[in-house]
Amino acid sequence: MARDGYDFPVYGLNNGMFYPLHIPSLVCTAISFASVIITLVLMIKSRNIKSFFTSWSKSERFILYMALCDGSYNIFHFATHAHVAVVQGPVYPRSVCVLYAFGMIVFVTAQSLLANLVAVNAFMLMYLDKYLNLGRYDWRLIAWVFGAPIIGSTFAAIFEQLGPTGAVCAFDGVNGRITQICFTTGPMILIFVANVALYTATWIRIRSRSLELRRSLGAHCAAQSIPIKAAKAMSLFVGAFFIQWMVVSVYGTWAMVNNGVPDFLEHLYHILPDIGGLLNLIVLLMIRRGNLLSNKKTTPTTTETDARSCTKHSKDSTDGIIPVGDVRKIPLHVIENEKDEITSDL
């Protein structure tokens, strides 16, 4: 009877799947880490890092936090795959294996919690007209997103729940199965379902507001595209989160039910989470291309000029108040500034 994960055979050595597992994962992790560096350079180059907590929008700060989570996860995951690939066996001493596992679990959980905060923030903004209060210097976000995983992973390490899985270092293949279900598989499924529900409800809301603005301001007004841009930005976060982490829930559920997973799922489990940095960079580029991030340094664009022109036209016909949905009246200056208010708080 196996006492811990060290009693498991090393995955792939007996069937020729050893290097086909580790080499693709190492390549994807390296690409992801390079993408993280590019993301950080692009963000810091275009914004003043000294004013990170004062002038950066929430969406920009979320992207930076996501990049840091991805980069940190990439470091630990690359280390465990490289170690196993070089020695062609489990990681010794156990303390090193626990260190690899600790780092990966902390930043996997942190990114899941961060994605959920993005969903909650968007939902509150659109339904409750309230912004998620992250605290001074984002201390509430940092305490929850990073503090909770660090505490949980520390207890897991103390009670010997971390160790070899047969492929890498994570939750011990024997002693950590229940902890894995409670710590990652279960919460990951709940977070994913919650994110989909929140984003779906938010998208419906902003789509409705878009139609109301279209009817009130006319088909050619730039302001009508504001909610649609916000919806596109949020859908990108949902898509990236789904691609990167849904396989973790599927893997954990399959292993729990069948006491093992097929080879294709084992490979996806070690590849898809490794491309998070690349996905995050793509999200940043797509959001910038669609002008979904506010940038207070830029001068008024043609879109903003058109919005003011549209607002002036509406003022002439409505005497300064624009009816929306026959139940809400929006002052003209709010319509003029709505782009920054919506996008900067998503």
From TrEMBL:
Residues 305-316 have a biased composition (Basic and acidic residues). It comes from the Eukaryota. It is found in: Membrane. Keywords: Membrane, Transmembrane, Transmembrane helix. It is a multi-pass membrane protein. The chain crosses the membrane at residues 20-42, 62-79, 99-127, 139-158, 178-204, 236-256, 268-287. Residues 296-316 are annotated as: Disordered. Its main location: membrane. The keyword Transmembrane applies. This is G-protein coupled receptors family 1 profile domain-containing protein. It comes from Mya arenaria (Soft-shell clam).
